[in-house]
Hints:
The protein has helices spanning 2-51, 57-74, 173-176, and strands spanning 82-83, 89-93, 97-99, 102-111, 117-120, 124-128, 135-136, 141-142, 150-153, 158-166, 178-187, 195-204, 212-214, 218-219.
Amino acid sequence: MKKTARVAGPLGVLGLLGTLVLTGCGSAGGGSSDASSPTATATATVTVTTTAPTGSPTGSTASSSASSAGASSAGSSSAGAARCTFADLKVSLGPAEGAAGSTFVPVRMTNTSGHPCRTGGFGGVSLVISPRSQPVGAPADRTDQASVKPLVLQPGDRAVATLQVTQAGNYGASSCQPVPTQGLRVYPPNDTQAAYVAFKSTACQSSRVHLLHLKPYRAG
């Protein structure tokens, strides 16, 4: 019985040691998980930091830039096109049509340069007595502003804006102060130089009467 007690004692100690070793391993495994937790947290933080700007102004700017880049690549021939200047364009008029006390005239701008250029929106139009005379009456009012679109004109391409010229006879002579005119002075968008095109009409000298109404340029 004493022998058994002596043998069982070391085994019991070994068992205890084994238990302690196993417990130590279990603690190491738990420590390994705890050590990996910061890594997982850091990964989550990086993910959040990456995706969070999507709804922020920075994210919106990036999306806009990406959209712009896509638009540029879709029309690579027009990417970086310079603004159309007076020297790039030839101004002409299309066939006029009359309706309900007004005449509707297509005002055309053709890119006669050897390179693409960008334009769009509104120019300026006034009635004049001669190529070098001062404008008569009020300049053209801008209408349909919601349909303004940027345009890129390749060489030979054309932009067209519809000009409505109301008949001066619709107004009394005292309020209109009518005077015969021989042409139109046409300013391309964002330009201070103007072209003269022949167009017989009657203007109102009074600036209170607005006979001209111009729509924005569109591809034509």
